[in-house]
Amino acid sequence: MADLSLLQDSQEDTDGLLDFVSQDEMLTPLGRLDKYISSENIFNRQMVARSLLDTLRAVSEDERDCVSVLEQIDRLADDSEPTVRAELMEQIPHIAIFCQENRPSIPFAFSKYLLPIVVRYLSDQNNLVRKTSQAALLVLLEQELMERGDVESLVCPVLVDLTAPDSSDDVKTEAMAIICKVAPMVGRDVTERLFLPRFCEMCCDSRMFHVRKVCAANFGDMCGVVGGEATEELLLPRFFQLCSDNVWGVRKACAECFMTVSSASSPDVRRTKLSSLFISLISDPSRWVRQAAFQSLGPFISTFASPSSNASQFFRDEERSGAQTHSTDAEAVCAQQEPAGREEQDEDRAAQTAESLTADDSQKCLPSSSEEIPEQELFNSFHFWRTPIPRIDPELELLEEDRRPSAPALDRKHLQELIENLEPHIDDPDVKAQVDVLTAALRATALDSGLEDAFLEPRAARSNPFSSQQPSELLSADTQRRVTRDDDDSDASDCCLHPEDERKSKQQDVVPQALLEQYLSMTDPSRAQTVDMEIARHCAFSLPGVALTLGRQNWHCLRDTYETLASDMQWKVRRTLAFSIHELALILGDQLTAAHLVPIFNSFLKDLDEVRIGVLKHLYDFLKLLHQDTRRKYLYQLQEFLVTDNSRNWRFRSELAEQLVLLLELYSAQDVHDYLRPLALCLCTDRVSSVRWTSYRLVSEIIRKLSSCSSLLVSFLGELVEKFCHSQKWSGRQAFAFVCQLSIEEECLSLDQFSEHLLPPLLQLASDPVPNVRVLLAKTLRQTLLEREYFLSSVNCQQVALEHTLVALQTDVDKDVKYFASVHPGSTRLNEDAMSTTSSTEHLTSCGLCPRGPSLALLV
């Protein structure tokens, strides 16, 4: 009995629930809205806010109902529950878009009902509601759903009021952030009148550094909106204050936006004021600030380029191809103690350069030769031990203990023996220093004997069998002049270059010399220890933009740095250079590329796969810039791309196939037949399907390339028939059908040549035991060949065989083969149509009305 009563109660509850649901369904959309908008259940009111858009769509045909829904939205906006208000604000942009699309039915809906809610929520006490309203405001501005007058009269004054001194710190910080994002959308006029005075005031806010940090992070955007005149008069003084702020996070934000600030400034201000300011950031006591400054150094240098060069294009893309930006979450470690052990040599060097940049004269940007340099500064690695070192000044006492006058007189043989003996212990820093000194002495002797090229040429070029440049061609003009001058001097000490002379050899007048020296120092090993382990990669990423700024006439300033980066032990650094070497080649031109970039390019070809992929992805872009004779030498090396460190790296081979398609236009038909053809056939038999299908397109393009030479074409087509059409593997026979289909669709060869060489073996595949091969054959015949009038006319000698093959495929045992060989592939009675067509042709043949077999007119 108890169980029975339980069942009855359960049945009654179910009936009550069903009655409730049925009553709910009986209500109109407005009725349900009125019922639940005043519910005491918070969840019900949230569901009302979430379903407002659906309700509007349901009543969109009636203007009065739409107005009623909008009035209910205004009522819901006064809800005391923050989650309900936040849910409503999330729906506001979608409702606004709907109102804009249905503007004739509900005019002025947004400005009268929705915009006041957004403006009111900007100052809501709840953080979640404020954040949601800010996001909604940005969406409305991006979609241009707000009238300019409404933005200026309603939104902007509220944002300015939220940044008043009596506002809370969180509200002030959020309001300033939203002002910086709204400024580019509202334009220069509104920004200068409403936002700029408060922005300048917030830059000097002494209460909360968070507000100053927000201003510093968005300083570049604000400069870009107001223009150069307002930037120099009002904003730059505040920017100088922010760069010297007591909080390192503010200074770091300034360093990160330095490029955009410089772009909005005049060239004179950029050279005389911003350069010295940037040097102070590079020498900042905080490691995080120095790290951000060095990352922005290359982009900042690019702003010195002429407007026509567009050097800053290398830094505006957020996605760094092959080299993603390394960022450190400084706030996560702000509690840690700042590194205090920064080397004194960095401080001295940065201080000297900062002082030298304060003068207006560009010549004063260089360190004064009359200044006394500490002895330890003369021996640091930045000045002496960076490779390659042309010469050593014998006046410097490099080896003070027992320095014998006969030491410089060692011949080349003895120096080489000493270096070979010390190389097994190269890991020892002291031994490495001795090896560097001996190597420099060996270079000095090479200069006297006219053999300097053996050491200045990169290692990869010396081992490259395809390098045809003479050693003298690999030297810059400046180096050759020094060699000629030194050969005329009989004194060995005169050929040694003083550090001051080495510095002068890298001087230019495009950017302040101090900035360039700081950029060149990014390859110094000490920088990795005191600034950032990834600093060399940032230098490599910035190098094309810096090279474009300096111009090819100043390439000698960057050549040593580029070669140092190309031999860096971190593969990520070399990978970055590999991805951008084609851009650098375009900047330098064919002569400098052949002399300086080709040897490094050759070394990248033998590097890790992570580096080789950068070269491979832009192989065509680089080779097309080379001379034809130099370009042809790489035909021998293309086969090396088939060998990878990991055989599962199939994307490497797929990229090779895509590049080979582009490379066809750079070589003659004979070279394509001799070198690219074997690679294409090898890729066609790859284990990965994606590589094979890409290679089939490569084969069809080779056919197009060889069509100009009949003998090469006939030979290649015969090889295709032998290797693929008669292959023991069904995938090879299927590949032959697909290549034939591509050759016709892409018009790679004439129809007469196709009918003579490829059509007969193609039709033989009709009896292939594998249905997949017959399916592709049916598609090729029905969808490609029979679309050409040539194969429907009696001129074609293969017409009879083509007719019989198509009939055989229409009666195939496999339904998929029948489908693609049928007369009407889109019909629902495919099999019946195919069978009826076959019966008709057989009847005509038996009656003697079709002596040559079934007509293609009936099959088409």
Give the structure's gist in a few sentences.
With 860 residues, the protein is mostly helical. It contains 48 helices and no strands.
Keywords for this entry:
single chain; 860 residues; mainly alpha; 48 helices; flat; disordered N terminus; Serine/threonine-protein phosphatase 4 regulatory subunit 1; PP2A_Regulatory_Subunit_A; protein phosphatase regulator activity
List the helices and strands and how they pair.
Elements: H1 2-26, H2 29-36, H3 42-50, H4 52-58, H5 63-76, H6 82-101, H7 109-121, H8 127-142, H9 148-162, H10 169-186, H11 188-203, H12 209-217, H13 219-226, H14 228-243, H15 248-256, H16 258-263, H17 267-282, H18 287-302, H19 313-316, H20 344-356, H21 375-378, H22 412-422, H23 429-448, H24 453-456, H25 459-463, H26 477-487, H27 499-504, H28 513-520, H29 525-530, H30 535-550, H31 559-566, H32 571-588, H33 590-605, H34 609-617, H35 619-623, H36 628-632, H37 650-663, H38 669-683, H39 689-706, H40 710-725, H41 730-745, H42 751-757, H43 759-763, H44 771-783, H45 799-810, H46 815-821, H47 830-846, H48 856-859
Helix pairs in contact: 3-6, 4-6, 5-7, 6-7, 6-8, 8-10, 9-10, 9-11, 10-11, 10-12, 10-13, 12-15, 13-14, 15-18, 17-20, 18-28, 18-30, 22-23, 30-32, 32-33, 32-34, 34-37, 37-39, 38-39, 39-41, 40-41, 41-44, 44-46, 45-46
Region (Disordered): 313-372, 460-509
Protein name: Serine/threonine-protein phosphatase 4 regulatory subunit 1
HEAT repeats: 155-194, 235-273, 758-781
